[in-house]
Amino acid sequence: MLPEKLKTMLSDLPPGFMYLVLLATSLALVPPALILRARAVPSEHRRIHIIQNMDNQPKFFDQQQNLLFRDTRSMRPRVPGTVSRSQMVGDTHYFLGTVEGDFATTFPSQVEVNEYLLDRGRTCFEIYCLPCHGVQGKGDGLVHQRAMVLLNAGTNGTTWVQPKSLHEEAIKDYPLGQIFWTISNGVRNMAGYKSQIRVEDRWAIVAWVEALQLSQDASPEDVSGADSLPVINKVLPGEDMEEEDDS
Ligand code: HEC
User: Fold this and answer.
1) Ligand 1 center to residue 104 CA distance, Å?
2) How many domains are there within the chain?
3) What CATH number should be reported for the domain holding residue 173?
């Protein structure tokens, strides 16, 4: 029941205009239909992604193939001998100075005790230990002497624990591993040095501490060919002072 006016308007239109309108309308439905299909039907192709924002990056996933490697696996096997940092060091003798939970009584097999090692030990001892323990390891280094001056002057808040003499009987009886452990981890008021001194150098210091201890207790029989040397029967310079230190 169209009004008369509309009827005349429609009959005035060119012939076939209605078909054109119908065709245009159906064509206009094609793109939305395609979009709906793309959203509903699974596809093998990656969807069109115009702004990437680094959403997709080339990378290999587990169990994928990677032709870069001869065995074509993207997952690489562990390099033999790899140990994670949190895992045990393995060789406790070398790295901790312990064997089966006790302090080691020998040098580890990696450490060859020779002149070079002693030389290295002396250098490291004189850098790291001498300031407190003194050149001979008697616990009388310059740091100690300075601390005593401050202590005697009553400088506010100075407290001081004397560095041990490395020639005390107890310390002479320490197994090698315990000296190594002490250098590494410190003891009571002494700080540990494992972050500053490499493992091999710590063993070198152990060797030098042993040499110092031997040297302070040596008798002529310990030296080959000592008979041919002149006998020195007097008090060596400095010995008087040490007596006082010990009291
Ligand atoms: C900053 C000063 C200082 C330095 C440097 C230092 N020590 Fe000590 N050391 C001490 C003090 C202090 C003690 C005594 C700690 C205590 O009894 O509380 C000590 C104790 C020791 C002991 C005896 C441990 C025990 O069980 O009684 C040994 C062994 C030792 N030091 C070796 C070394 C060696 C080797 C080095 C060099 C790597 C070194 N120290 C560097 C201050 C120092």
Assistant:
1) 19
2) 1
3) 1.10.760.10
- Evaluate whether residue 114 is within a structural domain: yes
Query: pLDDT (tens digit, 9 = 90+) per residue, 114-147?
Result: 999 999 999 999 999 999 999 999 999 999 999 8
The answer to whether the beta carbons of residues 158 and 150 sit under 8 Å apart is yes
Nearest CA to ligand 1 atom 5: 129
Tens of pLDDT along 161-187?
899 999 988 988 999 999 999 999 999
* Ligand 1 center–CA 99 separation, angstroms: 23
Give how far the C-alpha of residue 126 lies from the chain's centroid of Cα atoms, to the nearest Å.
Answer: 26
Q: Is residue 102 part of a domain?
A: yes
Question: Which residues touch 117 (CB under 8 Å, ≥6 apart)?
Answer: 111, 203, 204, 207
pLDDT tens per residue across span 11-38: 888 888 889 999 999 999 999 999 999 8
Residue 113: inside a domain, yes or no? Answer: yes
Domain that holds residue 169: 92-218
Cα–Cα distance for residue pair 94/110, rounded to 1 Å: 7
Q: Ligand 1 centroid vs 133 CA: distance in angstroms?
A: 7
Handedness of CA 115, 108, 203, 133 (dihedral sign): negative
Spell out which residues line ligand 1, taking CB within 6 angstroms: 128-129, 131-133, 143, 161, 163-164, 166, 171, 179, 182-183, 187-190, 193, 205, 209
Ligand 1 mean position, distance from CA 186 (Å): 7
84-121 per-position pLDDT tens digit? 766 666 788 999 898 988 999 999 989 999 999 999 99
